[in-house]
Amino acid sequence: MGKVIDGKDGAALPGVTVQVKNEKTFAVTGMDGTFSLSASTQSTALVFTMVGYKSMEAKISAGRMLVSLFIGVDQLQEVIVTGFGTKIKKDLTGNIARVSGKDIENMPVASLDAALQGKAAGVFVNSQSGKLGQAVTVRIRGNSSISASSQPLYVVDGVPLTTSDQSSYGGETNPLTDINPNDIESIDVLKDASAGAIYGARAANGVVLITTKRGRVGKTSISANYQTGTSQATRRVQFLNAEQYAELFTRATTYYDNRNGTDPNDPSSETTFAKDWMNYHSFDQWGTDPKKSYDWQDQAFQKGLYKQGDIQFSGGNEKTKFFGSMQYLKQSGILVGNNLDRITGRLNLDHKANDWLNLGFTMSTARTVNRRLPDDNAFSNPLQAVAFMPVTPFTDPNTGLPTGAPPGDLNVGLYYNPRLSVDYAKYTQEVFRNLSNVYATAKIIPGLTFQTEFGVDILS
Fold first, then answer.
1. Alpha-carbon distance 190 to 81, whole Å?
2. Other beta carbons less than 10 A from residue 275's beta carbon
């Protein structure tokens, strides 16, 4: 028998789990903090556990036991970044959503805003298209403007990021693609109006504060990770095959001829024209093999390949701590001609100069190459190939080149063949980016700290 009390004020603690060490025998304290259980003669100790308190181990004694538990400070004092400083989570009154780096680590996405999808309450994340490198829509307070941007402000280790569109072709780009999501320790989303008191008008759409990983005291640790996967289009639209297309096409022209009193077999009839039309756009294959069909979706979609390799190292002592990483990502999209390659490197260093002064810097570099696609409504977009008739071959049998390519007949095919842009043209965006920050923190008096920092976001 025994009783468990709070080590600070001596109040009885109900709901404490009392378990015999290395055995399955346990009991739970009642409202008055008391417990009772039977242990074997070989048992030597009891283990006391409760959420929010440090675990306690006590030797079994013959008399009534009195055990004190103390609050587990580390468990209750999760630190939240609030802008110019940090706060203990239990003392926080603002509306802040937190996403841990563990929640997004090794996710098969290229950008950190895409990794936020479904992770933070009250934060709407939507991909604008399936194209790699395309901007992602993030809304924290809904749409705040009709004509201006409603994207939030992103701040990485105290440096506000450039997130405006950097493209004049193929839709908006996503500058956040240049940041390695595996470098992130935590993401804090400031959703209430108090963010405006810190960042001013830039915080009108909310603020996303990103803190990268830092070194910790201890032995140097090195970790490596490699992952790969594939992606493909699902629930594809079922278009007519050649036989179904020809049936509906000739049925429509026959109705037209009958309405106008024209014999469908007449050389000048619309039905005869339709048959000649399909013969012409099939290189005369339809007349000999009317069931030969071509699904032009196969020319637009591909199985996308995803490969990512990471290496991280961290460590340090009481004076100096460090964290470093490198990552290589190679990804091809589900649309042909859409690829993304990225190489990133990071080094974070923290140094304790003396008892009152801390110094440090963070530096990350990235090179991102994005092979982009035309706008979705452009005829050169691969998916526009579905406008071709299913009787039209992918390849000109006379030249062995894609249909519509010179020196073949340029008029075969109802529209421009998007494969020509994929095979013979490249629209590439190449980005070099450096995101760095240096800081100095001075402890003036107990409870008062002064910090100054200088950061740059160089985006080329």
1. 9
2. 19
